Amino acid sequence: MSNHTKAVIIHSAHDLRIGDVPLLDPGPGEVAVSVTRGGICGSDLHYYHDGGFGTVRLKEPMVLGHEIAGTVTAIGAGVTSVQPGDRVAVNPSLPCGTCRFCLEGQPIHCLQMRFYGSAMRFPHVQGGFREKLVCTAAQAVPTGNSTPPDIAAFAEPLAVCLHAIRRAGPIAGRRVLVTGCGPIGALTILAARHAGAREIVVTDIAAPALAIAMKIGADAALNTKDAPDSLEPYKADKGYFDVAFEASGNGRALADAIACVMPRGRIVQIGMGGEVAVPLNLVASKELELAGTFRFFEEFNWAVELLAKRAVDVTPLLSATIHYTNPRSAFELASDRTKAMKVQLAFD
């Protein structure tokens, strides 16, 4: 195997380059994967536009990307879960397995988590936007060779939404509000419908996103920019919805969700937008539960299974596929909510 591979590397805000990164042969328990598709995530866009988000800042060049799928090309000693030629989705999470949270069965909160394409640690954890990579065998989850790589690359964001659904408790037969219809909000719609939601109402300020939401199964889509009072009917008599998923990270959206959820309902906060004001009087008087949700763990394999079975249809969310050697065009398109929902990089 060559000792280098091409990758998409962010050096600073708007400084995105194609460069060489080291590539080793797979060791015991590891596999080599030829990456086929990589989805551009909101965090990738933060690095591209701002050099980071919040207190997380780029301190060195970093390979971006964590929504990736490809084909196994080689396996290390002791690997039996996959064989060369198998198509896989690559789980970007690698917990340490030895910290107190890992030992307590909460690897999602691992104190030494290594997550692809993340500047939260230094040295940074290099990402998956590269022609080839080596990962642990456990990270390479077989998708079945009939699952197209562009579908398999949705496993990571879908896993985020499946974890959010689990944080909400039982969904079957419930009325659900989703605020924010970007890729995560849209996948939350699909996940909630799969979980048996009775009714799904969504909000956003972008008409194209709302149109896709209706296409994938929302019962009503409200443009809170054009019609700021469109949620008012749902706030009457202490609220209408059993569960709300706040996927925008916007303070007003969270306030609306709190006002629209009925007493003893639950709001699951998915979007991260920094500090916002929370109407605690309503949270207390309506006995609401405000739950956070962050990433995923075992839900990744579940997401792969759902995609392989075509139990959820993510194809309406894929706006464009652009070759990785033209990353600026891909990132600029992914940044334009009027033109794109999800943009993927092609590495084949």
Write down the overall mean pLDDT: 96
Secondary-structure content class: alpha/beta
Regarding CATH, which class of the largest domain?
Alpha Beta
DSSP strand count: 20
Main sheet makeup? 7 strands, mixed
Just name the CATH architecture of the largest domain.
Alpha-Beta Complex
How would you characterize the overall build of this protein?
This protein has about 350 residues and is α/β, with parallel strands linked by helices. It has 2 domains: about 5-155 and about 315-345, Quinone Oxidoreductase, Chain A, domain 1 (Alpha-Beta Complex), CATH 3.90.180.10; about 160-290, Rossmann fold, CATH 3.40.50.720. The chain is about 25% helix and about 30% strand. It is built from 11 helices and 20 strands. The chain has helices at about 40-50, 100-105, 150, 155-170, 185-195, 205-215, 230-235, 250-260, 280-285, 300-310, 325-335, and strands at about 5-10, 15-20, 30-40, 50-55, 55, 60-65, 65-75, 85-90, 95, 115, 130-135, 140, 175-180, 200-205, 220-225, 240-245, 260-270, 290, 320-325, 340-345. Strands 3, 7, 8, 11, 12, 19 and 20 form a 7-stranded mixed sheet that branches. It has a 6-stranded parallel sheet with strand order 15-14-13-16-17-18, sandwiched between helices. Helix 8 links the parallel strand 16 (about 240-245) and strand 17. Helix 4 (about 155-170) packs across helix 5 (about 185-195) and helix 4 (about 155-170) crosses helix 10. The radius of gyration is 20 Å and the shape is globular. The two termini are about 15 Å apart.
